[in-house]
Amino acid sequence: MKIMAANSNLPLARAIAGYLEMPLVDAGVRRFADEEIFVEIHENVRGEDVFVVQSTSYPANDNLMELLICIDALKRASARRITAVVPYFGYARQDRKPGPRTPISAKLVANLITEAGADRVLAVDLHAGQIQGFFDIPTDNLFGAPVMAADIQARYGDKDLMVVSPDVGGVVRARALAKRLDNAPLAIVDKRRDRPGESEVMNIIGDVSNRHCIMIDDIIDSGGTLCNAAQALLDQGAASVTAYITHGVLSGGAVARVNGSALKELVITDSIKPTDAAKDSDKVRILTIAPLIGEAVRRIADESSVSSLFD
Length: 311
Ligand code: R5P
Fold this sequence. Notes:
It is built from nine helices and 14 strands. The chain is an alpha/beta fold.
């Protein structure tokens, strides 16, 4: 078994390799002068079970293309099995047609990864579980919840907690976290979004007064959803609001928005390489999911159970 990395999240790839006590494959993922991507593998991978780590985060198209070309290089080098380890699967929010004559880009990206030659996919907190079905190859969708639950127990376990979903679509994820937190009560923010990138909080379903709210979501992008929801929860009497989000996309001025928001703390994982702004922020804390992914990789390679990681 071997671990190879493209460029989008080298610190995470190195940490996964460290967990598995093995070096990364000796390979170069470089650019020609015209920005075309060139991959060269400097060691034998013939007959190997290779895991390529690459989040398709910003810049999404470059990082996706790097992943596809790495897979192609491995296939042509006769790797026995290639697993695309995509801690953050970009384009996932385009998983259905929002209107006529629009694409389903998540499906297109799944086709591209499969067609490039991947035999399996390993992702974390896919935006929608159904995206697994966009791939006609085995796809494991890991959950960040156990890592988050352990952190919440350690930091906030002595408080009156309430798990909050920032929108109706996230209720299943929030309920799963609440179950891990000794069946903490659940509230839901009923959010209406008029235009992409804008969000408007309409209603809080549940009594949050005097509760320490833990909001959970898969993605923070502009930060609008969370910052507005945090304010709405405080307006309804919440004692504090902390957010646990798997994928810190944090586009544009998102970190500044979080810094100026009512959020007590934003906790993200390293599924996407954190920006300097995120690392420098007093309100942002980063949890690593390297051991989670490393353990899943080990189990896939050993052909043992991955789901039992979440029992
Ligand atoms: C939406 O369904 C997602 O789960 C996130 O709530 C959303 O992508 C966050 O976007 P933003 O941070 O731009 O409000």
